[in-house]
Amino acid sequence: MAGDRAMGFAAPVHRALCEPMLLAGAPRAIALVNGTLAAALGVGLRLWIVGLAVWLVGHGLAVWAARRDPQIFDVGRRHVRLPAYLEV
């Protein structure tokens, strides 16, 4: 027997199953929403500088938040969706 493991009950877990899905350092969903908003401003309203600025600031903030805590956006989304049961 290999240490304290039971034979046949150990399975390797691929690294991609444990890490969050990031797109250029930001969470995938946030990066897509941010890029879509910036593209709508830049192409749709013809505000190229504003669209680029929105993308840079939004993506920078998303990357910074994801580096501090990769699940911050999931926790924030759950916090908004679920009601507070214990009021202080």
UniProtKB/TrEMBL annotation:
Membrane-traversing stretches: 21-41, 47-66
Source species, domain of life: Bacteria
InterPro entries noted in UniProt: Conjugal_tfr_TrbD (IPR016704), T4SS_VirB3/TrbD/AvhB (IPR007792)
Annotated Gene Ontology cellular component terms: membrane
Record carries keyword Iron-sulfur: no
Keyword Transferase included in the entry's annotation: no
Protein name in UniProt: Conjugal transfer protein
Chief place where the protein resides: membrane
Keywords, alphabetical: Membrane, Transmembrane, Transmembrane helix
Pfam assignment, any one: VirB3
Subcellular location: Membrane
